[in-house]
């Protein structure tokens, strides 16, 4: 049967509609693909290895033990050891300037609070600029009033804890660092400080490294509270034969020396290796009345 002109027109219209439909579908698929490519993907789950150090710099001292005399040796030690993160305590303005000027090209500085003599303690978190960026930071006080400098429970000074959330640039993996310095005078203040730290760590479900000078050894309440609360001590995880390795010596050559400085982590801390105390000297004197300690930590990233 001969096809009528009207039928030819209908067929042509249907073909045009099909072609237009397929073109529209192709454009939609292309747009969806471009949008998907432009949306940042979440950081891949897995593990993250971080070399961590904690170091009480000592805010005072005379002659060969003065901050000015010790600063070159401290900078040299940090460059040699090359930790990914460092928590410093007793960070007076001199230390902020000396470390900032000497290491600014290598390290970023977060929660960078200078010590005010006789009232407020100082704290700084340093991190490798080439590897990490700081996406959040802040401080809280180890006292009944946590949002401002405050002295509680018979403490000598207003004690501080700084924190920072760091993101690895190459993977987007994030973790938190808390750097704390407990009071030396009051056992009650140290115990309450540990409770604050434990609460703060558990308030946010994120891989967390805790660094600091607790001014008490592992037999005292602060360490027990943290460990019983699920916080892991890198010293214990290493399995190394470093029993009773001291971190505080006060420039004394005789025992007893004490282990009062800690590298710890929450439930996401899987492994700790290469734990060591660093016993460098400058002009015959140690770098501080504390030894810096470091460990390589493996974190689980959810």
How does this structure look, described?
This protein is α+β, with helices and mostly antiparallel strands. It has 2 domains: 1-39; 46-301, Deoxyribonuclease I, Chain A (4-Layer Sandwich), CATH 3.60.10.10. The protein is 29% helix and 30% strand. The protein contains 6 helices and 14 strands. It has a 6-stranded mixed beta sheet with strand order 3-4-2-1-14-11. Strands 5-6-7-8-10-9 form a 6-stranded mixed beta sheet. A hairpin with a 5-residue loop joins strand 6 and strand 7 (174-181). Helix 4 runs parallel beside helix 5. It starts with a helix and ends with a strand. Residues 6-13 and 27-43 have low confidence and may be disordered.
Could you name the CATH topology of the largest domain?
Deoxyribonuclease I, Chain A
> Are there runs of 5+ residues with pLDDT below 50, and where?
6-13, 27-43
The first-to-last residue Cα distance is 71 Å
What is the number of strand segments?
Answer: 14
Helix content: 25-40%
CATH homologous superfamily title of the largest domain: Endonuclease/exonuclease/phosphatase
The succession of helices and strands, N to C, reads: HEHEHEEEEEHEHEHEEEEE
- From the spread of the alpha carbons, the general shape counts as globular
| CATH class designation of the largest domain | Alpha Beta
Describe the largest sheet: 6 strands, mixed
Overall pLDDT score: 85
Overall radius of gyration: 28 Å
Strand order of the largest sheet: 3-4-2-1-14-11
CATH-level-2 architecture of the largest domain: 4-Layer Sandwich
| Number of self-contained structural domains | 2
Number of helices: 6
Quickly give the structural class: alpha+beta
Q: Beta fraction of the residues?
A: 25-35%
């Amino acid at each position: 049967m001969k096809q009528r002109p009207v039928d030819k027109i209908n067929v042509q219209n249907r073909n045009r509609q099909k072609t237009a439909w397929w073109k529209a579908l192709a454009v939609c698929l292309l747009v969806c693909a471009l949008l998907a490519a432009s949306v940042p993907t979440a950081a891949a789950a897995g593990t993250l290895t971080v070399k961590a150090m904690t170091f009480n710099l000592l805010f005072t001292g005379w002659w060969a033990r003065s901050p000015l005399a010790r600063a070159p040796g401290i900078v040299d030690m940090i460059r040699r050891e090359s930790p990914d993160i460092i928590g410093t305590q007793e960070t007076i303005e001199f230390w902020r300037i000396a470390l900032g000027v000497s290491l600014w090209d290598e390290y970023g500085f977060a929660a960078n609070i200078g010590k005010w003599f006789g009232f407020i303690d100082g704290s700084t978190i340093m991190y490798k600029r080439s590897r990490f960026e700081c996406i959040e930071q802040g401080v809280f006080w180890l006292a009944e009033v946590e949002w401002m400098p405050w002295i509680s429970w018979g403490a000598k000074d207003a004690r501080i804890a700084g924190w920072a959330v760091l993101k690895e640039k190459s993977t987007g993996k994030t973790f938190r660092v808390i750097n704390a310095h407990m009071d030396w005078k009051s056992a009650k203040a140290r115990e309450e400080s540990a409770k604050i730290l434990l609460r703060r760590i558990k308030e946010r479900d994120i891989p967390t490294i805790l660094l600091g000078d607790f001014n008490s050894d592992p037999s005292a309440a602060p360490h027990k509270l943290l460990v019983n609360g699920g916080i892991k001590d890198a010293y214990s995880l290493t399995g190394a034969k470093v029993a009773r390795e001291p971190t505080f010596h006060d420039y004394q050559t005789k025992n007893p020396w004490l282990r009062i400085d800690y590298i710890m982590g929450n439930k996401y801390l899987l492994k700790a290796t290469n734990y060591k105390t660093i016993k460098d000297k400058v002009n015959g004197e140690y770098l501080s009345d504390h030894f810096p300690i470091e460990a390589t930590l493996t974190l689980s990233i959810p």
